[in-house]
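> Could you send the Putative aconitase prediction when you get a chance?

Sure thing. Input:
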Amino acid sequence: MCSKILDEVTTTDELIPSGETSSYRSNPIGLAEFTLSRRDPGYVGRSKATAELENQRLAGNVSELTEVFARIKQIAGQEHIDPLQTEIGSMVYAVKTRRWFCA
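Output:
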């Protein structure tokens, strides 16, 4: 989990302020870095760290994940999980999101 927002409602404009993202149209990585940067300043760093773990996993290096997967294997039905076959990704949790439209 790279960010957790516990407000009752979070608008998409809070996540990606409109008008400020036009320069990122052809730069999806830049847009991803811009997203939530003001709301949660640590988000970008945590997301990049997560992406680096996935890059290492794709290269076959799962040594940093040994303890995590040992704990996952303790969950019923997950005893045979293979770190090399399990993607690692980031996520943002919000209680409720709402899209605001301006007329």
